[in-house]
Amino acid sequence: MTTTGTGVGPAVFTSPQHDARNAALLGSALGNSFTVCFTTGLFSHLAQYAPGWFELPARPARLYRVTQGVHVTTGVASIPLLLSKLWTVYPHLVSRPPVRSVAHAVERLALLPLVGGALFLLMSGTANVARWYPWTFNFPRAHFWAAWITIGGLVAHIGAKAGTSRDAVRRTPRDPSLVVSSGAARRSFLGGVAGAAGLLVVATAGGTISPLSRLSALAQRRPDDGPQGLPVNKSADGAGVTDLIDEVAYRLRIEGAVATPLVLDLAELRALPQRKAELPIACVEGWSASARWRGVPIRDLLDLAGAAPGASVFVESIQPRGGYRTSEINSRQASDLDTLLALEIDGEPLHPDHGFPARLIGPNRPGVLQTKWVEKLVVT
Amino acid sequence: MSRLGFTRGQVVGLALAFPLLGYGFRGVLVDAGQTHPAELGRWLVGSAILHDALLVPLVLLVSVAVARLSPSWARPPALWALATSAILAVYAFPFVRGYGRNPSVPSLLARDYVAGLAAYVAVVLVVAVAWALVRRRSAGGRGDGLAAPVDADPRPAHPVEA
Known about the structure:
Number of strands of chain A: 10
Strand order of the largest sheet of chain A: 2-1-10-5-6
Radius of gyration of chain B: 23 Å
Number of helices of chain B: 5
Distance between the termini of chain A: 70 Å
Number of helices of chain A: 10
CATH architecture of the largest domain in chain A: Up-down Bundle
Oligomer: heterodimer
Number of strands of chain B: 0
CATH topology of the largest domain in chain A: Fumarate Reductase Cytochrome B subunit
Shape of chain B: flat
Shape of chain A: elongated
Strand content of chain A: 5-15%
Radius of gyration of chain A: 26 Å
Distance between the termini of chain B: 28 Å
Structural class of chain B: mainly alpha
Strand content of chain B: under 5%
Structural class of chain A: alpha+beta
CATH class of the largest domain in chain A: Mainly Alpha
């Protein structure tokens, strides 16, 4: 086999940037960013599809906003990291012989879930942020299960490469062939990768970090763009509720495990003690924006109906269909005074797109669980 | 190292990875109504094939062109500018095309993404030109001291410092 540059793969790979030290450094950065992405993604999944053993806490109120912003931002930053890492190690793909031992064959086989999974996760995550779904599967489910497969591949890869990587980043590696690039060329290369990642982050993160909004020309949103200066994902028209909203006929029903089932009209709701809270809408797609809400604490409504302490609540919208027409408020969130049936935003009645006449808004909840156009609270 | 070539790290890695892989693959199958395993499989495998068989060879071809057409001081900035612009363009593609636009939510994908992409590519070009000029000035005083072989470089590989 003729080799140059990195000593691996065919002679065409003359760039010293294919060396093992670059692979180790980029791999380490990528391993960290994928771990952060996986952890925050897992948290988002637990928040949205809470299993019986998990109760999303109400505090810190902005936790989901931060974790989901971090999830999407690290995913975006991972795009140049992943592509440069794969380019760095590409000569190994075409090196000969293709398989040197059983262990080598297993190592290479484990790369398929890692590489295919990592590319798919970043591509599908980007498409989701752009709300583009060129497939028939359910994005959250496919993205979630593919993440476990990818992390499995990553753990196998770390196990196989940990020794080489440790050696490659030593000041003087035991195997000198692991370091081919000069220090200056390496700094240029890795600095270029970091620069690309930084540019992509600045170009996108303004959807959640308001001061960056003007610079974030590729962000999905402006945090202040929307009805009443707040974005929405689903409008009243889009949800098919425009004709169902009737201020006079509106009734909120509170039923289920309560001593006194209640039916309250809008005037009665407005006559109850109101509470103000500044809380964010934090979308799973990474954008978020805060607003000042005013409404009746869910806890007060439960007390009024005589619900037992520690009750949880199933919230229903007048929205006739859609995966997010209902949500659950667990007992920790239901007992938090800032979990509101909101009637106003910034001192004005809610815009229909924000859920007029009444919507749920609570601390540390994904945006899709801040149910709009609420008509029923079922206490469980 | 075992007879089959396994290192201890690899064995530990595989032992930890199997439950994760198993959980993921099982989830795809159990949740088949939502995940559409055959289609998802095509996306997972297809992503890797597309990258390995199309994207990287394309990058190599560009690298060949850059190596042949540009002086050594310009090569890393030129490749960086091309790669970064390409990444920005690929990321921006669904935004520019506006596949996800929804007439009932005008605030969604409301930016001028063509102009935004052009502005970022312009920033990349300005940085790359400045970087290249700095490299040329440095190279001027030291001959070809900034030679940085790229892939398919027509010159023989130089011994380099560790």
